[in-house]
Amino acid sequence: MGNYIFLLLVLASFFGLSKLFTKAGTESWKAWIPVYNFYVLAKILEKPWWWCLIMIVPGVNILMYGVYGFNVARAFNKPSNQDLLFASVLPYLFFVKLGFDDTAKFVGLSKFKIEPSKLIKNWIDPIIFAVIAASIIRGYFIEAFTIPTSSLEKSLMVGDFLFVNKFAYGPKIPQTPLSFPFAHHTLPFSESRKSYLEWIKLPYFRLPGFGKVKNNQIVVFNYPDGDTVALKHQNSSYYQIVRDIAESEIAESKDPNVNKNAIYEKVWNYVNTNKAQFGEIVGRPIDKRDHYVKRCVAIAGDKLKIVNGEIFINDVKQTMPKMAQHHYFVKAKSNFISIDYLDNLDIYVTEALRASAGSSDGKQMIFLEPITGANQGYYPLKNVDVKLFKTTFNTSDTTVYCLNMTEATAEKVKNDPNVYHVFKRVDMANSYDSKNFPHNPAYAWNNDNFGPLLLPKAGMTIPLDTHNICLYEKVLNTYDNGIHQISKQGAQVLYDGKPISSYTFKQDYYFMMGDNRHNSADSRSWGLVPYDHIVGSPFFVWFSMKYSENNPVSGKSVLGSLFKNAQEGKFRWGRFLCYVEDGTLHSVKTPFLAVILGIWGFNKWNHRRKLKLEKASAK
Fold this sequence. Notes:
With 619 residues, this protein is an alpha+beta fold. Among the domains are: 2-140, no CATH class; 180-205 and 224-289, no CATH class; 325-424, no CATH class. 31% of the residues lie in helices and 19% in strands. The chain has helices at residues 2-23, 36-44, 51-54, 60-75, 81-89, 91-99, 118-140, 238-253, 260-273, 275-278, 339-344, 351-357, 407-414, 469-479, 523-526, 589-618, and strands at 142-146, 160-165, 218-222, 228-230, 281-283, 291-298, 303-307, 310-313, 316-317, 325-333, 388-391, 398-406, 419-424, 450-454, 461-463, 486-489, 492-495, 498-500, 502-504, 509-513, 529-530, 534-544, 578-581, 584-587. The strands form six sheets. Strands 1, 2, 3, 6, 20, 21, 22, 23 and 24 form a nine-stranded antiparallel beta sheet that branches. A four-stranded antiparallel beta sheet has the order 9-8-7-14, with no helix packed on it. A four-stranded antiparallel beta sheet has the order 11-12-10-13. It is globular, with a radius of gyration of 30 Å. The termini are far apart.
């Protein structure tokens, strides 16, 4: 309905413009040709002709409508504050009102060339056009991001401030253009208030880009599982919250014949109605879902399989990213590893970890169950947030730690004289983890043993049955072609109540993973990423700093770090001003500084040249 109302408002503004064009001595028919009408209006107002081009840009054109309205009000001798406010906020209706107002005479903007209001001249005009320009750049070209989680840690790190190239795969037209400038989905200084209105909804459309998503590229995308959010737990998957509570109740019942569907339905109702604990449950449009950044390990049409932590694409083993991290078990002397030791190796720890350890100095590690008996060689650690784990053998002089680190760091630890043995953790095959996609015991998949899974491609037809429908159910009922109802009836799969045995997909799908393999919520957790969720590619890190939550020793002092190296201080100097290529950083500090010095030198030379010319002309 909102789209139709907006269309009526636009048509009304065209009608109003036709009246105003007549008053300004211009043919009225020109007001009915989109874009050209605003080119003509810019000429009438003696403004730059390219203003009309801004009217093509969804979202930003709404702001530009107000700019046109403000100038039209003054040009037709309606400079009162009331008229200027009306014209800026509702220009569509103001044009109509002005068209039928006999007192509105076209006088032009000549008297405003020397702006009587310093506030308008020095502040309002520059701010409005700065917002418009920044909105165009942010929405269609380059957007600034920070890395919020350690999913790609050591490739792209928590505390990296980077720019994302939206033309890498083609910028998307905003689907919810009525939005507060520079806010994503939540208003500034608010934890839950929406920054956008869904009165106008535009269909998905993507402009041409520089290329397509390829294997092993790092990609920024809208989080698919973020289509529904519990506002008091925005950093957690709403669906996983429900699954965790339901699975807990099912386990506590200890009844093999328990009605799981009934428990899930009860939990859904509980989460959706318990606002005190979970907050309001809201749906978000695609372009307002959280931004995630992961490595695309499989593209549309690929067959993905993970075997003992190694990725196979179309049965070919893939090369592990250079900075990939895994959990390593470290058998060492008791009480050997401390927070300082880990910080020195840049192995992340958290305040939550130290609080759980019950020690103020952080040197007391968390004790878990011994790795003995049925668990020998395998420890069932699931998706958790802390980076450090400890367990004890039955001996008193050694301890087994579980550390999250790169292969290179593992070699450093292995060569420490206090360490006896280091080996990589690998989850057992056929060990079902309810946190892993497709969250169905029929598919006993986990982080290290996953698949095979065929990724849908636009135009590809995949056979479906009651067994494999769980792999593609979310795609069919949410992502691919609008909202649909998927259900099972006996041996049949029903699509909106009609039996289907196969499905032809409408768009491409991708499998995203973090390089931090045992500490990443990615496609192994929530499934496939549709093409219409793809945003862009990170291409430049301009600043990087440590947070004390993750680096409790070296990540504290700001001023003190100005004179410390990257290992001892807060700032990662080596990551400043770096071009990003698939997670590898290439420093451009020297050419960047050379360009800055070149610009400074040219301006200095040009200034002196002008002074000489002025002196010469004065003689």
